[in-house]
Structures are given as structure tokens and as C-alpha cells.
Amino acid sequence: MIPDWKLERYLTGDLPESEMREIREMEATDEIFAGRVKMLREDNRAILKKMPFERLSEKMEARELGSGRGMNGAGNVVSFKFVKIAAAAALVLAVVSVALFSQREIGLAQSANDGAQVMDVAMADAALTGDNAFGEASDTRIKGLNARMEVWKKTGDSAVQLANLSEVREGDEIQLRYAVPEKCFGMLFSLDGNGTLTMHMGDGSQAIALEPGKMTTLPFAYKLDNAPKFEKFFFVTSRDSFDVDASNLDALLKNKNVNAVSVNLRKVEGK
Amino acid sequence: MKGNNQADREKMSGLYETYAPMVFRRCQYMLRDESEAQDMMQEVFLRVFDRMDSLDLSQPSSLLWNTATRLCLNRIRDKHRRGLDVDSSELLLTIACADEEDDSFGAQSVLAKLFSKEPESSRTIAVLHFVDGMTLEETAREVNLSVSGVRKRLRGLQAKLKNLEVK
What we know:
heterodimer; A: 271 residues; alpha+beta; Immunoglobulin-like; 2 domains; 7-stranded mixed sheet; 8 helices; 12 strands; elongated; B: 167 residues; mainly alpha; Rna Polymerase Sigma Factor, Chain: A; Arc Repressor Mutant, subunit A
């Protein structure tokens, strides 16, 4: 008797060739088994007819737009590529790692049309992280709730926890972990050097309810793309429900009712 | 970090056409409810879609099967915790409600769980072995662990669930 799981793999063609051949022969010679396979193939067609890909596609679009439900996973881009925020993002890195970037770069950013807003975001960010000019990390410092976030990078068969301003490269696999000391609402997102905000944990742009306890590892890792300069991770919590307006991150970070932890990773070239 | 584009959609369409029936039947078998299974099947693919950039899609059947298993176990457990009726076998319910073993394994295991190619949870492994009837070797292949690794995971769970016996 072929178990269900193996029969499913036979139908999708995912068994090793020797097993595929063996079962094909059985289908050709065993009428009862052939009937079972035939029934499943008919079932396949019925399922796809009843639940066509288009239905899933609609939900995929909804997720991309950040309006889908159940977005408690990661990797949902909140489509956020405003020039202003890109400039702000560049300045975030400039401000928090003064020793690593030239005064000229900062001066250019400050002279941008949106300099005031950019500076606000940058300063709010610096205050939250407590980064200093020497790149010494205080990445888990927060106000109020003692929430924690850890950022790990895969290295061969192992993994290494990244401190603030650690170097990362395109293609690095990053994993996030967090813990909160009491029931609260929270979200995890990152901002990259292109100004793209990526939600890793949240319900669209809404924070989700979090339970206190041990460190929780997000179910999936993330591969860094080629965004330049930095990738900054934020873990924002609050006793009350809240959301993030992707076009006004500054407002969230300055909100006195939320607490934020951040870890800023420096993007360097090369793989 | 991630850009869902047309290529991703085409890839998803291909995955869906090939594997949606399998995933749906898996969900229906575990949840015993057609409507819930439909929702769950879509959720499985949406999870994959959300993480296409970081997932290893070289074995989509294993990935989708195990993802469906894990999400269905979570659904069963959540319903049970809320006191809702759960139409599942006693064995499936027992596994679904088992505590995970994070505290009982070493740091290396925790590190291994950090990444997307991480070994599946012990609960999922238990379903593959005890419910689906995979041998230890088949289970190991399915979840990219050694046989001894699978046995260790199952014994960790077994310590909490006395009615499970590693074959």
C-alpha cells in the first residue's frame, strides 16, 4: 500500500526516479491502484477549478499593498519608496555612525530640501538606539518596556549574533528574535538604504499582540538584497495597539507611547 | 529587502497549479473541514509568497507539505486552547498541543532553528513519522536532518507525550 504522502509526491513528480518508475509500473498493472490515482487526478482538476490561482493572486496583491489580513509573518513590503524617506534613511546612518561617514555626506543630506524632517527622523533614531560615534552598540536599550531584539546572521553551519553597526553584505541571511516582558503590542520592520520599509512581523501596518516569555524566533530568515549603505531593524512596542505610517516613520519613533529597539547593520560591498 | 515582482507571481502560479491540490488535501485531512482547509491552503501559499526570497524552493513538495502540517497543527492547538470543538484524531490533537522543545535542546539546535532551512519543529516531525507513517529515514530526508537527529527530536517530544513510541 502506497501511503498518501508518497502518492502525492508521485502525482507531483517529486519522488526519486527509481520510486517514480516503480509506482508507474504499479499504476500500469494494478487496477485498484490505478483507480486510486485516477481519482486523485480528477480531484486535482476539481480543486483547481474550484479554487483557481486567481483567488490566491488577489490575496497576494492585497498583501503587497499591506491591506491583506493575517500578515503576522515577515517579508511584507509596505511599499515605501519616498525620496524623502530615502534621504532620511541615509541620514540615519550618517548621524548614528559619525565616525564612519564624512562630514561632507552629512552636509549634503542636511542641505536637502527636506533637511528638517530628515534630521528629525535621524535624531529620533539616534536617541532611541543610543549609538555613539565609535559604533559601540547599545542596540537593546529602550525606554519603558524592557523589550529585546536580537539580530543573527548565518555563518556556514552556525550563526552569529550581530551587534549594532556590524557589517553585512548582499545575500547574507538574517534572522530576528524578540522577547517582551509583558503583554503588549509590537511590530518588527526594517528600513534599508533605498528607503524601503519591510515589515517582518505585524498585521499589515498594524502592530500585533505579543505575549511575554522567552525569546521568540521569527519563523523565517531573510536574505539581504543589494540595498546600499545599511539595513536597520526596529522592534517597536507599546501597551496600546498602534500602526506605522510608512510615509511618516518619524511620527512613530517620536510617539511617547511607543518604545523602540533598533539594530543598524552597515552594508558593505562584495558577497 | 524583498521585491515581489512578476517573476515571483509566475513562479507562484506554477507552484500553485502543481501543488495546490496536494496542500488542500493535506489541510483537509488534518482539519477535517473543507472551508477551513481552503483558507489554510491559501495561507500556506501566501506564507511562501511572503518569503520567496529567503526560502529554499528546491524541494517545494516538502516545503509545502511541512508548512501545511505546521500551520494546521497551530490551528488545531489554537482551537483547542480556546475551547472550540476540534475534529481531529486523538494522536493529532496530542501532538498539536505538545509543548515545543526549545528549552530542552542545546544552543546549536536553537541556532539551527534561526534560519529558514531550519529543521522542522518536533511536532511536525512527529506528524510525519507517527501520523503519515514515514520511516525515520524518510522523515529525516523530508526535514533535512540526520536519522539520529530525528530520533532525538522525537524522543524529546516523546518524553512529554508518553503514548508516542519512536519506531
